[in-house]
Amino acid sequence: MITYVARRLLVAIPTLLGVATVVFLLMRLLPGDPAVVIAGPQATAEDVERLRHQLGLTLPFWQQYLSFLGRLFHGDLGMSIRTGDPVIREIFTRVPFTATLAFTSLLIAILIGVTAGVIAATKRNSSMDLSISGGAVFGASMPTYWLGLMLIILFAVHLRVLPAGGSDRGPISLVLPAITLALFSTGLIARQTRSAMLEVLGQDFVRTARAKGAARTVVLIRHALRNALLPIVTVIGLQFGTLLGGAVLTETIFAWPGVGRLLVDSIGSRDYPVVQGVVLLLSVSFIAINLITDLLYAYVDPRIRYG
Amino acid sequence: MALPSASAVEAPVVELAVATTGGSRVWARLRTHPSAMVGISILALYVVASLLGPLLFRWNPIHQTLSDAFLAASAGHPLGTDDLGRDELVRLMFGARYTLVLGFAAVAIGLAIGVPVGAVSGYFGGWIDLLSQRLTDVVLAFPNILLALALVAVLGVGLTNVIIAIAITSIPIFIRLTRASALSIRELPYVEAARALGVPSAAILFRHVIPNSLAPVIVQASLQLGAAILLAAALGFLGLGVQAPTPEWGSMLGFSRNYIFSDPNLATFPGLAIFGAVLAFNLVGDGLRDALDPRLR
User: Which chain B residue has its CA at the smallest distance from A267's CA?
Assistant: First the structure.
């Protein structure tokens, strides 16, 4: 197990380096002189020169790259052009909001998705199954940003029971954003749970458990669901990327002060160091979560032995 | 909001279904697949709307009549008018063109690059495979909307750049899928026979390996179309996609946010249009999966 963890960590290094390189190159892709583009149309020649120096653009290309990586190692992502604060601080004041939103949504998606999937599988081809499977396709096709607007219209404009946005009313302001963000993942988790359960329910050990006279729910949860978990865990792990990406849209709609909204605002104000930092941070979290998912397999299915 | 794709990348390779069943058999199976037919009908409706819209209505989608702003639905304007007095229905019908063009162009680029690279990678292996695998790892490490946003942030907004950005997010998915198929196909007797007969590698690749790897790729392409439309509209919604006054659904939805309290209908219809398009491609994709490989049903 330890060798497996070590090997997985080693394999993640080239990917991390690749992600850092892509993020570095993104800045160089800016058409023309990045300093001029970043400084904006109102900047004087001195401003541009100062910025060029600050961004290290006077150095040779490879040196810029190495110093970029070196600074990354120390957690230095540069300064925000808009506020002048370190990018890392800008991001970390927002992380708790995005984390709260993403985890709440994931929890909703797992609870509803797995339950619905199990029900659909046990009542295969019933009207219940059809509506759950249909609902899952609907959920996976629904534009998050549209769902968010519709929920605002219904609950904030017409019924006036929930706030339309912001985060200043405690847990109640989390309700709409979390539901909005969860819907897509709920659909996918339900679909995956249904097909994994169908496969397991047809196997001999489930029939044996039933023949022994084990209670229906015990068979379903202890025998069937336990053995169907692997593909479900996979799809849940993959949902994290979805949730991090979806947070960008959900946070924008609900004025939720998280990392995703910071990204959209920074693109709007051409604050490229912040854009770089957020893209890097979210991608690294995604890689880390995929790694954790892989490691979870060992707990979920002890038959997997990592040599 | 991402794409239903990630899980499908890991899906078992659908073997040789295209070659052994042929197009007409697939169509016959699709015709008896209710959800696929619903998807195809919605798509047909969209295509007709995008072609007929300009003929049926005399309004121009970007023509402003400020005195007609925020009109409710009427015989003259079946879905009412927007903040600048433009007819909502005409704009939606024109919008179908942008959405379909965006989706098909992005997926076509993804296929044109992803399939050959994946086939070469899987068939030849070696350093090409290693390189393409590491590169796809890196691209897939970015949640797709994040990558598209970052690309649009540097490339600039507009139709072409949005297509490029979305195509880039779909390339690694097609590389992975085609590679997985090519890996199993290269071991099959007919490929060995072709090699023994002295058929050049390029011919084996294009006549045998690629055509026989297509079944899962076709299914994914349909799902990817839905994903591309969702992503393009998301960029438009954030103001970073196709720009106003172009009647693109995502940007129409984005602008409607300003009037959500006074005229919620402006948010309802563009979103419904996007939802319908994505749903249609997802349903067709599911239908194709069942039609191409009945074992997975």
Answer: B153
Which CATH superfamily hosts domain A95-257?
A: MetI-like (1.10.3720.10)
Cβ contact, residue pair B234, A140, below 8 Å: no
pLDDT digits (tens, 9 = 90+) for A76-113: 888 887 788 889 999 999 999 999 999 999 999 999 99
Task: Show me where the domains of chain A are located.
Answer: 95-257
Q: What is the pLDDT of residues A273-306, one digit of tens each?
A: 888 899 898 888 888 888 888 777 767 777 665 5
Nearest alpha-carbon partner for A150 in B247, B257, B160: B257
Mean residue pLDDT of chain A comes to: 85
User: Which among B239, B256, B282 has CB closest to A140?
Assistant: B282
ipTM of the complex: 0.83
- DSSP-derived 3-state class of residue B118: helix
Q: Say yes or no for a CB contact (<8 Å) between A245 and B10.
A: no
Q: Which residues pair with B81 in a beta bridge?
A: B87
Nearest-neighbour CA in chain A from B190: distance (Å): 33
Q: What pLDDT, on the 0 to 100 scale, is given for residue B267?
A: 85
Give me the phi and psi of B62, to 5 degrees please: -115, 10
Say if CB A103 and CB A306 are below 8 A apart: no
CB contact under 8 A, A15 and B137: yes
- Count of CB atoms situated within 10 Å of the CB of A76: 15
